[in-house]
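Weekly sync, protein design subgroup
Attendees: M.S., D.O., the rotation student, P.L. (late)

Item 1: inverse folding check
M.S. brought a backbone from last month's batch and wanted to see whether the design step gives back something sensible before we order anything. D.O. pointed out we never logged the input encoding, so this time it goes straight into the notes. Structure tokens as presented (554 positions):
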């Protein structure tokens, strides 16, 4: 619900704040006072293009801001969540600024956004009737949604949309499969070649490092054998070896320590050196027995290393990468061969879902046809009461060649307001007043299913008066039981039914026209109704008539 509208420096409005409540509110005033300008300012929050010539003379920018209470509208909260917007304390603030020169700006809850986003949110909050481009009911998508809501077919429409999405996805997979069948066959052949190559190689973790070390030993086996043998001999096995000489020195030092105990430490250390060198000598002796000069094995190692090097160039810098590639290629090959790309299976799924879609669309079409007939009857029954005695209303259902995401047919509202003329598209109704009354007939019928909380009517009273005006007023008040309704009007019959009555007045203070709005109650409201009746607002007769209207409207 719109609870506050603030307008600053827009056209003839300098600084204006409207506080609005639930139910039916009317805005009245002399012709040219600025009533429709207020509606025009509000339309900026519904996506109207901003024009710099609407900035008040002498001002740098115009501002329009609306505060909405959205706490009772869960579907709107879902829309806001999708946009990443949170309504604090259930309040939502939309604001646009129009610069006389330079960049225009927009906000939602003090966060900068685009005018388009403000318009999307605004149109979910306010349904404005008066300017064609801002009337949601003129859009075929909206008309279809209204018909589905009226016919309690929204769930059916949702099922059709889900089945259509499923079918589209399967058809896309099947198309891709058929388009890439040759590529897939080539891919399978290539993967089979790779897995054969990798399986045959049977690379082991760390194998490349181990083979590189073995290759180094084999390539240098002669030098390794010769040097190891020489060192073994000089250290341990040859006559006069180092260990033999150290042993003799240790024995001599053992005799000396008996005479001087301070030599016990050096003697012990020399013995440890002997044992260490003797152990090294024995190990070298064992090593010499293992060294093998084997040109055949060297060739095998080199061939294996060349193979590993080639595989690492293809699959990764290490043997571990080659092993991972083998597992990955096997998994992909299994996926391509395990039936997931089975064309027959996909084609069967497509036909199954296409049948489900056709069945769901047929059920939806039946509900729409039945709802269209009832809606035509109910709207046509109301049109004479709204000053359109020759009015006819039809719902055109045009079947598509194929089911689409929203069903098997398009939905369009057609209307004729003059006898003898065939119904045409709702958007082609020439008179704003006629269009608004047709909209009002729809709103009166659909009020309980339409989820837009606020409705604004700017030209609802064009070309009507007398009893028809009273009927229009009664219908608006009926709609206001389910929605907040805001009406710009010249009709006293309508103004007398309002819960809130606002008066627009224009003054020429300081040489520049300015519009202002004030709430009317009591005698002030009586005088305004008297003025709207066309009499002298100060005369007792006009005021008595006004009081009668107000009493009848309660």
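Designed sequence read out in the meeting:
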């Amino acid at each position: 619900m719109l609870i506050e509208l603030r307008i600053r420096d827009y056209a003839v409005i300098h600084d204006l704040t409207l506080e609005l409540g639930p139910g039916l509110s009317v805005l009245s005033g002399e012709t040219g006072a600025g009533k429709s300008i207020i509606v025009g300012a509000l339309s900026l929050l519904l996506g109207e293009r901003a024009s710099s010539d609407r900035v008040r003379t002498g001002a740098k920018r115009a501002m329009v801001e609306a505060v909405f209470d959205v706490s009772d509208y869960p579907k709107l909260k879902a829309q806001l969540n999708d946009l990443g917007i949170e309504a604090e304390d259930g309040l939502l603030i939309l604001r646009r600024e129009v610069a006389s020169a330079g960049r225009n700006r927009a906000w939602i809850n003090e966060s900068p956004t685009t005018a388009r986003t403000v318009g999307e949110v605004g149109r979910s909050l306010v349904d404005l009737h008066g300017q064609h481009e801002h009337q949601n009911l003129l859009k075929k998508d909206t008309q279809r949604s209204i018909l589905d809501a009226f016919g309690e077919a929204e769930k059916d429409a949702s099922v059709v949309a889900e089945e259509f999405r499923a079918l589209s996805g399967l058809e896309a997979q099947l198309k891709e499969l058929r388009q890439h069948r040759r590529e897939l066959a080539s891919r399978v052949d290539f993967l089979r070649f790779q897995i054969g190559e990798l399986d045959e190689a049977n690379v082991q973790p760390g194998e490349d490092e181990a083979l590189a070390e073995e290759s180094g030993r084999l390539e240098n086996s002669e030098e390794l054998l010769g040097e190891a043998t020489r060192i073994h001999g000089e250290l341990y096995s040859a006559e006069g070896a180092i260990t033999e000489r150290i042993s003799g020195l240790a024995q001599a030092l053992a005799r000396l320590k008996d005479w001087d105990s301070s030599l016990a430490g050096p003697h012990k250390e020399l013995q440890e050196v002997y044992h260490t060198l003797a152990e090294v000598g024995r190990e070298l002796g064992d090593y010499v027995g293992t060294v093998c000069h084997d040109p055949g094995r060297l060739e095998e190692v080199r061939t294996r290393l060349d193979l590993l090097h080639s595989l690492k160039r293809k699959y990764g810098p290490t043997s571990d990468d080659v092993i991972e590639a083998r597992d990955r290629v096997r998994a992909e090959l299994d996926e391509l061969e395990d039936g997931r790309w089975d064309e027959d299976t996909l084609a069967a799924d497509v036909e199954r879902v296409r049948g489900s879609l056709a069945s769901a669309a047929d059920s939806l079409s039946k509900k729409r046809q039945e709802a269209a007939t009832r809606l035509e009857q109910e709207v046509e029954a109301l049109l004479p009461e709204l000053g359109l005695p020759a009015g006819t209303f039809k719902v055109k259902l045009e079947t598509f060649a194929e089911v689409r995401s929203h069903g098997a047919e398009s939905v369009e509202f057609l209307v004729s307001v003059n006898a003898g003329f065939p119904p045409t598209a709702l958007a082609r109704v020439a008179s704003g007043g006629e269009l608004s009354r047709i909209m009002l007939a729809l709103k009166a019928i659909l009020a309980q299913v339409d989820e837009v909380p606020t409705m604004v009517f700017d030209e609802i009273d064009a070309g009507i008066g007398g009893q028809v005006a009273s009927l229009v007023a009664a219908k608006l008040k009926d709609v206001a039981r389910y929605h907040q309704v805001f009406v710009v009007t010249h009709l006293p019959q309508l103004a007398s039914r309002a819960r809130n009555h606002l008066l627009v007045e224009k003054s020429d203070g300081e040489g520049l026209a300015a519009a202002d709005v004030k709430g009317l109650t009591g005698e002030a409201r009586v005088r305004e109704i008297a003025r709207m009746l066309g009499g002298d607002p100060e005369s007792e007769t006009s005021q008595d008539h006004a009081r009668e209207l107000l009493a009848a409207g309660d």
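Discussion: The chain is about 55% helix and 20% strand. Residues 397 and 507 are 52 Å apart (CA to CA).
Action: P.L. to compare against the previous round before Friday.
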